[in-house]
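Deliverable D4.2, example record:
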Amino acid sequence: RQGYWIDRKKAWKELIQDNGESRENLIQKIGKVDKTAGYGKRYDKERIKPNSLSNGVSILDPVLAEIANRWFGIDGGKTFDCFAGDSVFGYVSSYLGNEFTGIELRKEQAELNNDRIKEFSKSKYICDDGQNVLKHIEINSQDLLFSCPPYFDLEVYSDLKNDASNQKEYGNFLKIIEKAFIDSLKCLKDNRFAVITVGDIRDKKGFYRNFISDVKNIFIGNGALLYNEMILIEVLGSLPLRVGRFMKHRKVGKCHQNVLVFYKGDP
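Output generated by the structure prediction step:
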C-alpha cells in the first residue's frame, strides 16, 4: 500500500492498458440471467476474485508480476502460464526481455492478449485448455512458471464446460487445476521456480475450502517443494463497508492473497 508500489503499479497499467474489458460484459450478462443459481453463481462485486479490481473484474497486480520475473526468473528466459487470464503477466514478462507463452481458454481473451503484446515477437497467447499445456510447450523447456489460477466459483470466466471456474463441484474444479499444474511442472526445467498466486474461497456454508493447501499438495506431491510463501496485501476498496454485514455471521473480511513459490530441483 506504500507510495512506491502504487506509483509503479500505475506506471505499468499505463503501459499495459488492460482493464478487463472482455470479462466485464460476460459478468454483467450472466449476472442478470443467473440470479437464482445460488451462492456459487452470483457475480456481484463482493464475490469477484480479489487482486486488483477494474470494472468489477480482477486484474493481476503488475508489480507482483515484475517481482516474480526479477526475483525468481532468469534474464532472457522462457516463462509461461497455463491459466493466463488477463495480459498483465505476459506483457510484464515480455517487456523485461523474456519469451512468454500463455494458455488461455477463452478465444476473445486470447486474441485481446495477443494484440496487447504484439510488439514482443517471441511471446504469444494460445487459445486452449490449460490441461493441454503439453501440446504447446516442450518438456523441460521453461525457466519460470507463473500462474494465478481460477478460484473455483468466486469469479466465473465463461460458460465453457472445461472451464475450471465453471465447475459445479469443487472436486471437479480441483482435478482440472491438478492436471494443468502437474503437466506444467513437466514443462519446467530442473532448478527453476514456480510462482503461484492463490487465495482461499468459502463454500456455500461459509467455511474455507482450504484451496491454498490443495495447491501446495499438488506441487509438493509432484516434486516441487514449497520454498517461499509471501502475502500480497490488497487495496481495501469497499471492504470496510462490507465487513459490517460479514460480521453478522462472524466472518472476518479478507484482504490478502498467498504467493506460493515452489522449487523444482536441488536448491
